[in-house]
Amino acid sequence: MSRADVMLAYVPQFIQTARSYKAVIDTEGPEFDLVRTNLADILKQFYVETATAWGLDLWEQMLDLKSYAGKPLEQRRSRIISKLRGMGTVTVVLIQNVAESYSYGSVAVTEYPDQYSFTVKFIDERGIPANLNDLKAAIEEIKPAHLAVTYEFTYFIWDELDAKAWTWDQLDALALTWNQLEVYS
Length: 185
Known about the structure:
3-stranded mixed sheet
């Protein structure tokens, strides 16, 4: 239902049929629809999770991030959320929150104080995240300079393959490349 129809419903019947009033309503109704649509779009920009390309441009500018205008919206959102989460005292939980904001599932952060290092291990998803370089840059920005970081990835291992007890024909029927088999779930 258009805004013009809604506006007409609020006036008495005899006015609804007046040509001059109907002309005003028919003109103003679409304008109110446009205002309503634009307001809804502006509201989306206040939240990184719903922001569109132009809103993400503003978020990146506000946070002094290099523009990622050509990249997918989800990667841009992950980077912005990571930057927002990365503010404050650096703890294992903070590093974990930043790493998980890159939407590649859960991570485990293990610290090794005697070695001045910590490890970020990807648990839920197998393989290497597509935006690993962005994640590494975010971790480098928030971690103390004297700490080294190591990244661990999860892959499909031979023991899991053996547990499936497939014949060669069954495995061949999957038609997987080696790279696809490495991340098979």
